[in-house]
Amino acid sequence: MPMMEQQGTVTLEQPLTLPAEGAQLHADLIVPEEAYGLVVFAADAQMCRSCSRSRRIAREFEQQGLAVLLVDLFTPEEEVLRSGAPHGQTNLLAGRLRGVMDWVGRQADLNEFPVGLYAQGDAAGAALRCAAEGPSSFAAVVCRDARFDSVESSLGSVRAPVMLLAGASDSHAVARSEAALLGIGSKRKEAVLVPDSSGRLDDPEELETVAELAANWFSESLIALY
Prior knowledge:
CATH class: Alpha Beta
Number of domains: 1
Largest sheet: 9 strands, mixed
CATH topology: Rossmann fold
Mean pLDDT: 86
Number of helices: 5
């Protein structure tokens, strides 16, 4: 695993290929020195693991002392799935997230970490479905700009702390988040509106806010479990 110097500490970074749900998924594992938790960053077709937006958020996690597993849940050949039925995508991506967690559980240097899950868009519904399957899945979840129509029946079984992030100017996303929050069974849950007046997906200020909110949520949830 290559080593990089980051602000006086050593960060290990390694590209990986993970078997999950009949596919070979591309991933990057980033482990800062003295990490106390792992965040699985579930990248969908619109926000791949290598894009600058994903990297900016992952860097904030790393700076908080969290290892990050950035995973592209779609293979390059599956771009066509972006136009598929949301329910079908949710089932597929949930299966792949289970496969990723199975892989993490087999890694001696990772399986002691409490695990958080960051997901947005197509992957967010799948994240909550996996979180609903029991405490052995994820210890904390952050979803951004999510759709919940295909997982409404699972929300009541989610017990992990959940933060839902939505752009403040997107009335539909705000309404979805507020409705989903009522159905989530966790005792610790929160819906947060992110200022997004520019309307740009790569707006630096919006990314900074999202990264800090998510990193703080994971830090508070995972450090107590390590």
